[in-house]
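The instructor's notes for this session suggest beginning with a concrete chain rather than abstract definitions. Hand out the sequence below and ask the class to guess, before any prediction is shown, which regions might be ordered.
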Amino acid sequence: MSAHVAAPETAPPPHQFVPQQQQPPAEYSSSSEHSRGGSDGAPRKLVILGLPYFTADETLQEFFSQYGGVEEAMVMRDHATGKSRGFGFVTFKTSNDAARVAGGEYIVDGRRCEAKYPLPRGEVATQRVTRIFVAKLPQTVTEDELRDYFLQV
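After discussion, reveal the predicted structure:
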C-alpha cells in the first residue's frame, strides 16, 4: 500500500470566515450579565479557541468588531506569568451577532481560530474526536498498520 502524501496547506487569506452554524448548549445558563442577550436571554458571549500567544485584547476586539458590535473582548492569561493561555472571550452587543459568528473559523493574527459558545462552568464537552494529527512516523508504516494500532483501544 502506498503512503499518502498531503499537499501543503496554503495559507488562507486574512480574516477568512468559514460558516458552520453552532447552536448554544441547551442547558446554557450563566449568571454573568455579559452572557445574556436581550429579553430572549440568548447568549452573546463566545469563546475564541486557538489564539496566538501574542494576541492582545484590543486586537481581538478590533477583529471581531467587523462582524457586529463588541461589548467586551478578553484574552485569558495565566495569573502567575501573565502569558496568554491561547483562548479568549468576546461578548457581542446582540445575540444575533454572536449567533452569526458562532461555529465559524477565523484567522486572527495569522492563526486559525474557532468561535464557539462556551460551556457552563463544570460542564465537559461530549463531542467525539473524529481526527488526530500524528507526526514523525517512519515511511515504512502502512495505512493498515496505523489503523490496526488505533483500533486496539
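Then share the key points. The first helix runs from residue 57 to 64. The CA atoms of residues 5 and 139 lie 11 Å apart.
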